[in-house]
Target: Kinesin-like protein
Amino acid sequence: MASNLLLPLTIPKITSNPKQIHKLILDFVSFPPFLQHRSGFNNCMVHKMSVSAPVTPATKIRRTPSSTPSGPRIAEEKILVTVRIRPLTPRELSAYDLIAWDCTDENTVVSRNLNHERHNGTYTFDKVFDPSCPTRKIYEQGARDVALSAIKGINATIFAYGQTSSGKTYTMRGIAENVIDDIYAHIKNAMESKFVLKLSALEIYNETVVDLLNRDSGALRLLDDPEKGTIVEKLTEEVIKDAQHLRCLIATCEAQRQVGETSLNDRSSRSHQIIRLTIESSHREESGCVKSLLASLSLVDLAGSERTVQTNADGIRLKEGSHINRSLLTLTTVIRKLSVGKKSGHIPYRDSKLTRILQSSLGGNARTAIICTMSPALSHVDQSRNTLAFANSAKEVTNSAQVNMVVGEKQMVKHLQEEVTRLKAELLTPEASSSKCLRTLLLEKEQKIQQMEIELNEIKRERDLAQSQLEIARKLQKDTKEPVIQNQVAKRLSFSDHISISNRRTSVRKSTQSTQRKPLRQSATCMDPCMLVHEIRKVEMRQRQLGEEANRALELLHKEVSSHRLGNQDAAETIAKLLSDIKDMHGISNSIPEEIEVKDKASLKEEIGRLKCEENTIASLEEKLENVQKSLDTLVMYNNEEASRSPLKTKILKTNGKMSSFIKSPCSPSSSVIHNIENMAPDNQKIEGDKKASTPAAASKQPNVKKIQMMFKTAAEDNIQSIKSYVTELKERVAKLQYQKQLLVCQVLELEEANDGGGGGETDFVEEMEYPIMPRHLVFEEQRNQIIMLWHLCHVSIIHRTQFYMLFRGDTADEIYVQVELRRLTWLEQHLSELGNASPALLGDEPAGSVTSSIKALKQEREYLAKRVSTKLSGEEREMLYKKWEIPMEGKQRRRLQLVNRLWTDPLNMRHVKESAEIVAKLVGFCEMGEHASKEMFALNFVNPSDKKAWMGWNLISNLLHL
Ligand SMILES: Nc1ncnc2c1ncn2[C@@H]1O[C@H](COP(=O)(O)OP(=O)(O)OP(=O)(O)O)[C@@H](O)[C@H]1O
Model:
């Protein structure tokens, strides 16, 4: 869409004042090279500069301070969100529909709560317009400021969002009219500038992009341009001659757009329409050099969300409605995630063509205003609530708009050369009177111009260098996700590198401060913080394991020592100390949090702080191990002394039982020896008896007892020795871990420095990263929303939906079922749409037949459930539901069917989904089934308690499989 946007620049007369030219060039290069965004057009440089877009007090745009204190500032601004309530339509008036909303002031809309719900809805926005408000006012207060930014080189987007028939097209038509008037009024007044306006227009119909200025070109492809973002291939762009021409083209686009009749709107837009006006303004500034501003204004009229029950859509309208709802669901998800901020993780722009095309307007380089339109009618209250919920999220989304400036370098150089030639010519034909003075002056000028030419070349060279650096940085950033860099990280962590940590840290700091600062910082920036934090986590886990191992070792030691029954106060103290030491160690390792999500810069900083604190903790861990080792040495010494001083016989024999428990420990290094001892002396009592015996038999056992003593002593020493070496080993491992961790800290510090010290461009690298880890509950919620939409699109049994919805709440064990369901439904939906798009001649009646039979099955299912309403719901419950779901007073049977027909019809409204599931669950006695409703039944098939396959989406799959 953006291709061929730029016309060759025409240069008005340029000043010959070298000072001014020089200043302009300095202006031009005063932005770091990484901010000099190179456009796709030859010989032009597009600058993105900070925006100081005027903010009228009336619009009350919320602004947040720039996140980059130094360097060029990028203005961050929240999306301007307004709400327009239209008057009741003749259709609503004739149905005696009630008004359900009040605008209590110019920022607040309140639900009248005619349904007596517990929560009264009050919503506040930048502006709220009541039904009497004319479009001119809506334009002035909710769109003009943003729209006219396009004249100043800032991309702008205005879009209307709302349910079908809420007045989006009506509003956008008025906005476009006003924009055209204002833009041409501005052009008329800006005599010093030249404007080139171009128009392109497209619609997204059933997920197909169509050129509204040339429908014959068929479906257009979306391409990803690394610099320009998503572009539409081969989209026509018309150069606008004047206001009348522009109006005419917009009218043509409107006439080309897909429109159809539904029960809610005679002329319902069945596609999303995007009209893009590109404005390029070149003007002569005081400095006299050419600069152009280039921006686009997108006017977006979305198709409206619709409930099948209300539109009574079938056939082609149903298919259109499904596509509309689906892309709006993606838009809602994108907005919801953007509103949460960086914690939200991946933003699914690519899930629909609409969000791909609008990506830069949603959280990107544009100023955006959204006008949410809604019907005041009570019959649409749920849909209006959805719109307001969308508006609520949208008002939290922040954009970073920049001025897009274009400078034609070739023209500048050419002009300078012309200037030199002109001055030379003047020199050759001097006027007699002032010849000398003029000659000197011209010589001076010539010198200056030469100097400037040199400078210009230098600037060009710098720019090329910066661009190539940027390319390398980008490439590196891409590469960080690949194994090569992971290997590099691993290399950096390897212990073969014997440079001391402090040296390394100093060298890192020095190098970042040196003249080589940029490449180093770039490489640091390219290190994925997630990867670093992941490495730190691994180290911490190993530390925890070491703590546990040390704990086990000390417990063994404790058993070993107590088995000797030293009975000595010193030894008891030693043991107590050892145990408390090891507990401390364990505590330290346990105090390391298992999981910290590091998703944004703030938490990364927190993480760095925590790591810094932990250096002390690790030091104390080392100290404790040192103490443990000392204590062990003491024990060994004590043991040896004891062995030489007093016979251990009695004590050892008495503790035989305890030793055996130690023997069985897998850590015992002398189990075979002790095992022999066990066989030789199986019972304390017996040996005690033996000891006292004076019979020859008893006497014959005396040498055995000595042998046993010796063996016990050796075994005990062996054990202590092996535990000692084990502790030494642990100590070494902790030291290694500390080294490893400090390396990581160094890397994180590098990263921090690179982020803090760098200009906006480098910060962007980090901020733009999409962190892959997303909390499980959010993933589940996301997937469940998709499933709900797919159920709706594939006409899956509502009993199946209910059971699935009620059973799977996001436990870890549910993941597999959710995956299976999602895959199966995605497959089904894809096949349905493929069949839907295929030529009927190729397929005969099959796809239509499959869909029809599913819809029929769903209808039968609803009839079945309607019959159960009177038996499964009490009279009171029924009345309450009729009231709540606005079921008109008609025959009993009809009311029941109407109630059931409304269940599971609004996949975008989670409250509706939950309530529907609860009602269906009651109707089929799902709550009573309790444990019988096993999750496993979802593993293979769509299910239904009554086993009527016709009700399942399954029969649809079977049909498809037979194609
Ligand atoms: N502010 C308003 N004042 C008077 N009439 C309005 C207003 N807004 C909308 N209408 C009328 O309401 C009807 C529906 O409006 P419109 O076609 O603009 O809705 P929409 O949201 O674009 O619907 P869809 O999504 O189905 O295309 C039209 O007849 C339109 O003239």
